[in-house]
Structure formats: C-alpha cells, structure tokens
Amino acid sequence: MSRPSIDLALRLDHRDVVAHVDGRALLIEAIRDLGARSARIGCLTGDCGACTVLLDGQPVKSCLVLAAAADGREVVTLEGSASAIAETVRRAFIAKKGFQCGYCTSGMILVAIDLLEAFATPTEADIRSAISGNLCRCTGYDDIVSAIADAAEQLSAKAATRESPEIF
Amino acid sequence: MIAHDFDYHAPRSLADALALLGQADAAVLGGGTWLVPNMTYGRQRPSAVVDIRRLGLDAIEIAGDIVVGAGVTYRQVLQSEALRAKLPLLAMMAGQVTGGPQIVGQATLGGSACYANPSSDVPACLVALDATLRLASRTGHREVKAADFYTGAFQTTRRPDEMLTHMVFAPPPGGAGCGYHKLKFSTGSWPIVTAACIAVAATDGGPRHRLAVGGANAVPVLLEIDGRDPDEAVAARLPSLISQEWSDEFAGAGYRRQVAPAIASRALRQARGAR
Amino acid sequence: MAIPEQESAANGTGPALSHAGVGTAAWVGRDIPRKDADRFVLGHIDYTADMIAPGTLRVAIVRSSHAHARIGRIDTAAASAAPGVVAVFTGADVRACSAPMPTRVPRERFPGPVDIWCLAADEVLYVGQPIAAVVATSLNDAEAAKSLVEIDYDMLEPVLDAAAALAPGGALARADWPTNVVARDTIRQGDLDRAFQAAFRTVGGEISFGSGTSAPMEPRCYIADWDDRASHLTLHGTLQQPHPTRWMLAQVLGLREAQIRVVAPPAGGTFGLKMVGHPEEALVAILSRELKRPVAFLESREECFLANAREQTHRFEIAADAQGRIIAFRNTIVADVGAIGAGGGWVMAMVTPTVFPTVYDVPNVAVDAVAVTTNKPPWQGIRGYGKETANLVMERAVELIAVELGMSSIEVRRRNLLPKQAFPHRLPSGLNLDSGDYAPALDQLLDLFPLDEWRQRQQDADSNDKRIGIGFAFDLTPEGASFPGSMQAGFETSTVTVDPTGTVRVATSVTSPGGGNETGIAQIVADVFGLLPDDVTIIQGDTDITPFGTGNTSSRSLMFGGAAAVLAARELKSRVAACAATLLQAEPGELVFAQGRICVDADADRSVPFKQAVSTIYTHAYSIAADIELPLQVIKTYRSPNIRHVPDEFGRISAYPSFPYSVHAAAIEIDVATAQVRVLDYAAIHDCGVVVNPGLVEGQFRGAVAMGIGAALWEELLYDESGATRTNRFKSYVLPRAPDLPRIRMGHRVTPSPFQPLGTKGAGESGFGGAMSVITNAIADALGEHGRHVNRVPFKPDRLLPLLAGALS
Q: Across residues C586-614, what is the average pLDDT?
C-alpha cells in the first residue's frame, strides 16, 4: 500500500525534471532523491542552513519548503552554481581552508555567492551576518570568513583591472 | 520528514483559500518557517495546508494608511524604501531578525504575527505601531487591533477558519521617533526581551511614548508613558504588567521581569534620540 | 630524509613555526590545501546518508517516554498493518536473534549485570531509549506508524540527578544493580593534611558543569546490507571506529569478522559522538539480516540531542606558601553519567581526575572521583573527553589562590608552571607528560594579547553599564587514549604500498572526522619518498581494505596512524633504495630521495627517477630486484613508548602518550542590566609539537576554541522533571554562530614530543578546555571580588545576574 504521490515539475540545476514524489516530501528530500545531494540535511528545523539552495534565485532553507510548493519553480544547488563569482568563492574556500568536514560547505558557499553578487565589498561584520543562518561546528568560522573576504578582494581586484573571469 | 498525510493547496483566489480554511483542521502556510518544521517534528498535523503564495498578499501599499500583506517577508520590508521612510520601526525590527538571509527572505510578517510566539519580534512591534489586523473568513471580514489580537502564548483571537490578510498601520505623526531594542544572548537564541517604542512630541510637558515589550510576557505588554523622563515610569509600571512572565531554556522565572525595564529604557532612549 | 630516523627532544623555538629535528622536510610544516578539496567545494563528497540506495528500507525508532520503567505488553499489530510498514521489531524480537552488545570496558568491571540490547527488552533506563523499530519502505511511513505502537509501562522510580543517585537508601537507576556508583577513582600524592596545615593561604570552591553535547552537523546514519546468499553483512555508517564496530557486530550477530565489512564514508564532523556503541549500529544490522533487505537509520536532529555528557560537580581546595608556590590541591568530583550504554562515553568521568594538577608543579595532590548512573540519556563521547573540566577547575583554583595571595594570577602561574627541564613529568595519576615549555608560551601570549590596553579599557568602562573582564587560562589535553582491556586499543596500523607506476597508497586504520588528517598523512609519507602529496593516496574507513586499529578518537590520527605510515614508508624506501643503489652503482646510504628522483648524495648527475626504480623492482624480480621483498607493501603498527599499561609501584598506569597544551587570553564584556556576555577579544598560543600542516592544526584549534566558548556561554542540555530532553533543536541548544565570535588570534610553539617519531602530539581536542576556562576566568574578573562565586558552567545570564547585582552593591 502506498501513499498518495504528487507530480512535481522543477528546473533543478538547469535541467527540467518531472518526478512523482511523496506528497509529504520537503523540498530538500525531493531534490536529494532527484540526485542533487550536495544540499544536506542537518536539522529539518531551518536552523543549520546545510540544506540551503536558491529557489527562484533567492537563498532558502529547503527544509522549510514543501516540495509541492516548489512545483514549477527553479532550484539551484551548489552543484549547479557556476558563475565567475561562484568559482572565485570556491577557490577561496580551498585556499583559506574554509571547510573541514564539509557538511555545511554547500550552504556556506551558496550564501557567500549570494552575498558577493549583491555586495562587492562586504565588511567582516557583513560576512559574519550573511553566514549567520548557517552553522559550522568544525571551523569556528574564522577560515570561512577569511575565504569569503578573500574572494571579495579577488573579485574587486579583477573588476578594477577588467580582467576576464577565469573559469573553475 | 513529515509523517502524516495532508493535502496541499495553493489557491489562486482568496475565496478559494477561505473555503479550504473552512474545512476542519487546515493550516495556513506563509513562509513555512514555523509550520513546516512543526509538521516535520509532528507538533502540528493539519490535514490540509493552504499556501498563500498565489493570493497576492505580498504587497506593500502606501496610500494614506500603510497596508502590508500578510505574505510580505522581512526582506521585502527591508527593500521597500517607502516603508522604511514611513514605518522605520518595522524596518529596524526586520533588520535585526536573525536566521540569515534565507530566513529573512522566507519568513513572513503575517506568519510571525499569527504564530504568536512570545519570543518573536513581530507581535510587540505590531502592538507598538497600533496595527490593525484584517482577518477574513468565508463568513466575513473583521478588523482587530494588534493589542487585542494576542490572548496568550501561541494564542490569538484568530479563529481556525480565518486568515490574516493584511496589517494596516496609520503613519505615525510627523516628527515621531522610534526605537527598537532587543536582548538576545547569542545570534542563535530566541529574542529574550524586545522593546519597540514610538515617541511623539506633545505640546504639554514632553513626548508621549507608546512602548510595547515583547518576549517578557506571554503576550506583548503595552505602556503609554508621558513625560520627559519616562525611565522611572517604566521601572515602576512594567514589572507589574508582566503578569504571565515567559520563561524558557535561556532564562528562568524572574529574569525577564527583572531585565525588561532596562531593555525598554534603551528603546525609549533611541526613540527620543531619533526624533 | 624529511623525517629523521631518531627523534630527539628538540627545543621549543619561539613564535615562528619551526620543525627543529625534522630535517629538510619538503612537505611537513607546509600549509598545503586539503586533498580532494575540489570535491568539497563542488559538493561532490558523499556522506553516509548520500549512500542510501533506492529500495532501502527505513527504520523509525519508538523510544521510551519514561525515564525508568519496566516494559509490559507491546502491541505492534496496528503499526504492522500501517501503510508501507514491512516489520515492527521489539526487544523480544532482537533477543531471539542476536546477542547483547559488548560494552566499552569489560562487563565484569560494572557493579551489576550489563546486558545491553539495541532495543530495550525489559527495563527502560532513560527517556529516548529505543524500544521498538518500525521498518517501512519509506522513512515517512515508518515515522507515521510509530505512534501506532502501544507500550504498557510499569513505572519505576527514576533517579534524575547525582544527589539522588548517592542518597543512602535511595532509588536505583538500574533495578538489578546494588548501587548507582559505576566507578570510583582515588589519586594521592604527598601529604595533603600536612601541606594544608602548613600553608600560608588556602581557598576552596565549587564548580558544577551542565550537560553538553557535541552536535556535529551531520546526524548519525547507518545502512546495513545483509547478503543472505553470501552470509555477508556490509554496514556503511557515520563511524569513527569501523574496526571496533565490526568487532561489536561480530558479537551481536554471532558472525566471524570476515563475514562483515564496515565502511565509514567521509564524516560530517564527529567530535566523539560517532564512536562505537550506539544501539542503532547493531539494530540496522539485525534488521537487515532478519528481513534480508538493506535497512537504513537516519538520526533526526531531535534524536541527536539525546547524546548527553559532562554533567558533574567539583569541590576543590588549593593551598600556597608565602612565595606563591602552590603546595597542595584536592578535589572531589561527582559525575552524573546518565544511563550506561554500550558506548564508552561515561569513561570521560574517569579521565577528568587523571589530568590534575595539569600544567602546574604541585607536590601534594588528592583527587576523589565518583561516577554515578542515573536515568538520563547515556554520555556519549565529546571533544574534551573529560579533560576540559579538569582544566577549568584547576584554572579557577589558581585564580582564587592568587586573590588570597594578593598576587596577579599570571605571576602565580609563572611561579608554578612545570619548567621545561622537568619533562618527562609524571602526574599524580601516573600520566607521563612527554614535553612542554609552558612559561615561554605565556610570554608569547602576552605579545599577542594587548593586556595593558584591555586593563585600561576595563578601568575606563562605565561600571554601571558595561563591565569588562579579562581572563587567562592554560589547557593541558592528554591525547591518544589507550585503555587496557578495551577496544580503545591504543595502537594504529597503516599499510603503505608503492604501486608499479610509482604512486603510493596508504591504507590506514585511522579514519577522518573531517579535520584533514589524510592530507597530513600524505605530507609525511611524501617526505619519506621525496614525492608530492598528490602522489600519495590515503584510504580510510573500510575494514576490508584498511588494517585493524581504533579509528579516530583522542586526536590520534597523525600521532599513531601517521607514525605507522612513516614506519612502513621508511621500510619501503629502503627497498627502493636497494634497487636504486644497484642502478646507480652507489651505496644505499648515499642516496637522497627528493623531487621524485633518487640521487647519489653529492652528485646531482647520478640520479634515477623514483618511478623508474619502482618499475624496475616490479619488472625485474629475478635479476636486479631478486633480493627485494615483493610486493612493495609494508604494514606497520605504531604503539607509543609513552603508554604504560603495566602498573607502576603505586598501581598507576598511563593511558595517554601525548600532551599538547595551550594558553589562552580573552576579554569579555558583561552588560550590567542583563548579564549578557559578549566576547570581545581572544588570543591563544598552542603547542602540539611538530606541526605537519599549520592550516589544518589552526583550523582544528579555532574550532575547539569556538566550541569551548559555546560550552562556557550558551550550550546546555536541559531535562524536564520527567527526565526528557527539553533542548531538542538548535533554537534551544544554541551553538555559536559567526557573529557571536571574535576573530581568534593564535600563535604556535613547537615543543616536539620525544616519544613520537615525528615529534607530533595530538591536535584537535586541544584548546577546548582552555576556551571554557578562559571565558570563565574573564567572567569572574568582570565580577570583581564577587567573581569568586562563579560556580556553574555555562554562564547563563539568569544565573549571572544575581552575582552581578552583588558585584555592584
């Protein structure tokens, strides 16, 4: 005996997908079942931020979204995030050791990209505020903050010298 | 992971939404920041979920009165220049909401208003601003003053078949100042005590203050204080108004009553200074 | 050549990172990026939960709603008939098809029977204890059916705190035990009574600690897949200790180890939580074998908050002479370790007493510790592992005696720190401190932390509004635990293989909790062969591939697993050198391995690529390589010469080989009206011996400090009057977030361990206790003379406010 399922049409990481999912599914559960596993489940209460994705371009905690409510909308996870800013942030996270276990990293990087897309020259306080919805238990945040600050600097320097962005 | 079965609806008309709400045990879904985790952990088990996202309740209208749709998010408040100019208190409050950019973009004012968590920012802010809440149901519409809306912790006068559609604010008189102060022990905790204040210049003997304290009591506490040095009045009157002191994992009995006057005074000072 | 064959006790060398005694390391000491870093930032790491295959059955656990009761009838009929449900198991079902879980220490050491089943069969001992398992085709369906399981309880009187546990004639937390006392320890050195009588000043105090939990971002997850046709079980899980988990499963299931493969995929943080012994590890394995289908358990965050730890009370007394020398210290510890499970979390309570008097040279010491079992959830391993509370109590005692002496506490520390020449130094517990250079670390800290500036700001602050407090604290963190008679076996094993193309594989028993030890191990092995870390692949967490060892606990990865890899690599290097010597017509002793080549010492023109020498060995087994043992694979185990399980003349053993230390300074601000505490500045000096990768060590240390600040200020598990956990989400058990913390400035010292081949000490836990302590001392400082009354960690404002009021009156 099975439960009622719903039809869900999504644009997920730049692909159109149609799926039957459990009507009770959360967005995080649905997209993970569809293969977008870089979004993680950490609390399902909207506190940890590990499930952060972009929903119609806005960062959301996808455990707070019913899968059914995302029908017809666009979801981008870390794996689908591929702008020049995204690649700069990724490189900075590697260079500054902005992760340890990596479980929070998908959410952290997505939030960092969102910050830098809106705001090229954040202060340290801006950065700490931007990641305040994302918990990290390993780093104490300093290396994450350094990575985002470093990415911001690189992007500003690039903008100043009008260099074309490198692709990761 | 939600265990129980429910029907999800995203109606396109208010009438359809209200018809659904008329059924037993339906829940209104705003930003989802309360309802969805409550369903995940089995604390709320509605048989139907009525999503308001297609109802057009996410608009901010300023024409005389300021009408804020129940589905307006904190981010929309912060991004509305007109609202920031007309109701700076609301913007101050929204600017201090934590949970990161995700929650600021997901959570709605209307959802927070209706959930009536004693620890949330919104209820006391609505009381300070003397907001009028518009409630709609199949059987009609009514308006309730924010101060009358809150009846207890997580309790309001909203009936299960009613939906909050708008919050209506009369613009504060010109020259009014406002202040918002919030005590939180760390970014991740609930607010412990909040204080929202509007200070209006009066001709006789100094400003009039409308002050609402949140977090300290099961429902927001409202004080109207006249005079140039209102701190003494706050210290004298506020503790006794906290008749159902709120306590939680962060602070036990007595704490909020003790610290509330100081938080209130800070908001008062800010409101006078900002005038 | 990167790593000397013989390590001497080299000197600590001031603030710069230095690796005296390590020779011409190409990679050791360098801050290189993490291995697989690109996969982390692309989101391509698969954690255990990512490996739940479609079609896997999911289990939801019905947990006790009572702290202490006998289980009566369990009615599973309705749940069994619910949509999607495949089976419902109870304790009786589990009993019928498996054996109890083995305990961390031998069962005969407990005061009563300890048959631990993964589902309670008779008596439940805490709210949240697993009673029944609902298995369904989806997690939603399994969870939905949980509420249909009906359980009758016969209530027993619960024991919910240590005082009740110790009350004469009081209730028993386990009905079949004669006592609630799980273990006691008594440590004596010198003549306490005489020392206290002769003292110039004495002072005492009490400190209690609330419960804490590790809360890694990744909840626990186990996936069992029983292959019935092959009679073989594969368990993937969030496991720090895959080999001990296999050992446990073999006993529970009655299988040979060869029938079980345990895999630990990359972990999303562990911090001690994911050590062996959780009931769900055994449960999924039993369910999979009985149902002949793969079964997965994924812990909810609410369940994760059942992991309890640290609740304890200390009563201490300290004595000093007129010169400020601490002459005696005594302490009585009572720890409430909750219910006893299969895991070893409660052992933390028995580690605490062994750490006294930490970094100080105190001739007379007495510590009495008792661990009592109650009907709260079991302790689970947590960073600090009991060492953090000892440090905090000692640092408070030093502060209090400094006040009595009228001296600065910095000066009291200086007069009592163990001097460098005192090492190795035997603590009263028998632990043998390997090395240390404490006083210069304090000097170095004062270069990093602007004490005078903060004192000025403290004076300038309006004491009716904000008060500033400044704190200092040392931290000594014994690392590398090796407990006799336990599967915390205390040795680690690495198999190093040089493959035919000249790349290197290291399969090691130590797992990675996410701190980057694989990168460090690659660096030290690369240095042995003169290769790049990228040429070295590290394989971890698979009992079919990696050799036996404890796994990752107690910061042992580089110290043990890395050492074993170096020993194996050195042997392989000598084999490759033998071949190269033939090719180059040189003596093996003349050869230098560097930059992928093997050169004759002084003659740059005489060299052969490493790859060529290796290829020659693999392809010329009957000629050039005839005398070289094949394949190029060596397995080595590393046991520390600084662990002693044979009791000394006082009956003491030494279960920890390595003693990193740190010294911390912090400035905090207290809002007088609310007692809200904000951390304004933080600096620390850390010494874990030779540092292999500074970025990794700093990251771990900062993480430990953040966790320590959280434990001092915000994090506390609370239980209601029924024994249920009230703090069950991140909104009620509050972890530090980025805006809550100042930037943590840190410096290194390098005092190599003379006992470890690389001179390294454990890194990872170190710093946690120091952070808790320094925040405590800073808060006490802000309270002025009332600071002596701080007695409860964490320092929640509702507890601080009365003290603050006292401080102002």
A: 93
Q: Are C401 and C275 contained in the same domain?
A: no
Distance from CA of C514 to the nearest CA of A (A): 4
With tokens 């309001």, the residue in question is: B156
Please give the backbone phi and psi of residue C519, each rounded to the nearest 5 degrees, phi first: -70, -45
C597 and C508 housed in the same domain: yes
Distance from CA of A60 to the nearest CA of C (A): 17
Angle of the C694-713 helix axis to the C517-529 helix axis, nearest 10: 160
Contacts C798 to B, Cβ<8 Å:
250-252, 254-255
pLDDT digits (tens, 9 = 90+) for C263-313: 999 999 999 999 999 999 999 999 999 999 999 999 999 999 999 999 999
- Answer yes or no: do C537 and C553 share one domain: yes
Q: Compute the count of residue pairs across chains A and C with CB atoms less than 8 Å apart.
A: 174
Q: What pLDDT, in 10s, does the model give residues C727-773?
A: 999 999 999 999 999 999 999 999 999 999 999 999 999 999 999 99
Asked whether residue C362 is assigned to any structural domain, the reply reads: yes
Statement to judge: residues C526 and C478 lie in one domain: no
How many beta-carbon pairs under 8 angstroms link B with C?
A: 78
ipTM > 0.90 (yes/no): yes
Domain count across chain C: 3
C-alpha atoms less than 13 angstroms from C-alpha of B186 in its C-beta half-sphere: 29
Residue among C192, C537, C145 at smallest CA distance from C364: C192
Class of domain B7-51 as given by CATH: alpha beta
Closest CA to C756 of C657, C672, C654, C674: C657
* Nearest neighbour of A37 by CB, restricted to C50, C215, C735: C50
Bridge partner list, A66: A26
Cβ–Cβ < 8 Å for C521, C558: yes
Amino acid in the structure at residue C379: W
Confidence (pTM): 0.96
Say if C533 falls within a structural domain.
Answer: yes
Examine residue C350 and state whether it is found in any structural domain, yes or no.
yes
* pLDDT tens digits, one per residue of B235-247: 999 999 999 999 9
C467 in the same domain as C453: yes
